Amino acid sequence: MTRDALVVGGGVAGLTAAFDLARRGRDVLLLEAEAEAGGNVRTAARDGYLLERGPHSFLGSADRLFDLASSLGILDRLAPARAAAANRFIVRDGVPRKAPSGLLSFLGTDLLGPRAKLRLAAEPLITRRGSPDDTAATFFARRFGAEAASILAGAFVNGVYAGDPDRLEAASAFPLFWSFEQEHGGMIRGALAHARRRRRERRGLARRRGLYSFAGGLGVLTRALWEALGPRCRTGARVTAVASPRDGR
After folding, report:
1. How does pLDDT run across 161-191, given as a tens digit for each residue?
2. Which of 182, 185, 222, 232 could, after both became Cys, cross-link 38 (CB 3.0–4.6 A)?
3. Residue 157: how many CB atoms within 10 A of its CB?
4. Is the Cβ–Cβ distance between 30 and 15 less than 8 Å?
């Protein structure tokens, strides 16, 4: 059996890649080891609650995700987060504390001490650039100081990847933030330049703010991709090796 393309792994990236190839007229086959595709972007219903296996929302600025939802015919299932979802809490010393969401709340937060706040505020003055093998922990400590990196950035990293900041490569895990430092000398400078560029790019387009999911959870997206692929997606198909036809195997 000959195919134009083989996609190994049916997480959201693999499903999207296979779906895009199929839309371009390619004869594609996706192989997923588990009994269900979706990877970590899957939703389960338990006792009247929706439980997300991984991420639970995405930003309103994720234009490509909205385009994908439109292509799949699930735009009508989009669900914006409620206003209360803007509140974030970080546990420090066993006490949940509201995470700062702006300048005033940053000045008043007890998540960080006075020195840590001053060090974080001085971020634009830190123009050192790191090396490509920097970990996320090293990167955020350089940008924001050790305490802010541990408390604020640490919570952010765990929330996004549920991983160890000391083991994640900064340039790979956070390419946008990495580019802020490499191209502009800092996070705040880079973020301001990025915001200006995004405003120019989105001029005349619908402006979405906040967080979004789907009625039924983010698993709605991966389920729609899986169903759109149909027989081009095979589950329970573990790949143990990939070889070229020239290898004679």
Report:
1. 777 899 999 999 999 999 999 999 999 999 9
2. 222
3. 22
4. yes
